[in-house]
Amino acid sequence: MKVGISVAGGVQALENIEPAALRDVGLNSVFVSCYEDEVRWYADDIGSFLRRSHRVGLECYVVPWGYGKFLDPDPSIESLYIDTHPETLQRDSRGRRCRKACPNNPRYLEWFASSMRTLAWLTECEGFLWDEPSFHVSRGAWGCRCVHCKRLYWAKAGVEMPRALTDPVCAFRRESVAMFLLAAAAAIEAVDRRLVSFVMPTPSLGPSEVQTGAEDWRTLARCSAVDGLSIWVPWQARGAQMEGTLVDLFEGARKKGLGEGKQVVLWVVGSPQPKDRLLDTIMCAHLAGCEHLVISDYESLFRTSAFAPFAASLSRTLARVQ
Ligand SMILES: [Zn+2]
Questions:
Q1: 184 Cα to the center of ligand 1, angstroms
Q2: How far, in Å, from the CA of 78 to the mean position of ligand 1?
Q3: CATH number of the domain at 2-320, please?
Q4: Cα-based angle 93, 95, 100 (whole degrees, multiple of 5)
Q5: Ligand 1 centroid to residue 171 C-alpha, Å
Q6: Domain residue ranges of the chain, discontinuous segments joined by +
Q7: What is the pLDDT of residues 174-213, one digit of tens each?
Q8: Interval between CA 147 and ligand 1 midpoint (Å)
Q9: Which pTM does this prediction carry?
Q10: CA–CA separation, 77 vs 81, rounded Å?
Q11: Going by C-beta distance under 8 Å and a sequence separation of 6 or more, which residues neighbour residue 69?
Q12: pLDDT of residue 254
């Protein structure tokens, strides 16, 4: 099993990381969040970190954040695109603009694809992770009812798009996400056709799914652009038992068509704190048959005073699972 680490702290975090130290602990891969507003100014620093990581033998993956925020799970992340292209944002069911670009807007799609081509040129990596693509959904309101979505819905369904979030609308949104992923994968593959695309579906914290367009694993797994699903294992956030949650999610992903040459990359929140049970989690994922586990993230694992006394046992565990 490969074990990786995510680095979500931006360029400042990259400055303080020595890729060889990650490899020496026994890690195999690094998932680097690349923020739209930072790539504009610090592309060289990001590119240099990924090159150094590659050189010491780490697999590298790019996680674009910002970029119109269609992919963005964190509302606090800035996107200059959003401020400069308000006409391409999603319209919610009450007619208001949301701070998320619409994947069916041709202008946004063109800008996004060209930005991803540039990012793929700038970075030496094995692939990209498309992190939680999502249509707006909040307090009974949902997107998108922009002119492009309504026109596309009419062309596909032969009726006007309903005002309620009906099953056909949910299916249309899932289809739109799949089309967006095809465009995103085509953009990076135009630079290097070996680049893989992983997608992180919307995680479910409660008993019901949040309808974002990326909630259905089966639709995402069937999309030819998707090489694997990244599944977050939110056992701490759910207040659930680690082993049961991890195995259920992993087996669930396999059952939904991911056995057919598509990978499952599990994501766990990890720290040296006993409450996070990181060593047990690594062993549990290994015994379940997982091929790639990612620990989120560098700050919570390495940059704590508890890391130094924990490092040796982490290395031993990583050696056992490889
Ligand atoms: Zn739209």
A1: 17
A2: 21
A3: 3.20.20.80
A4: 80
A5: 14
A6: 2-320
A7: 999 999 999 999 999 999 999 999 999 998 776 677 889 9
A8: 7
A9: 0.96
A10: 12
A11: 75, 77, 79, 82, 99, 100, 101
A12: 86
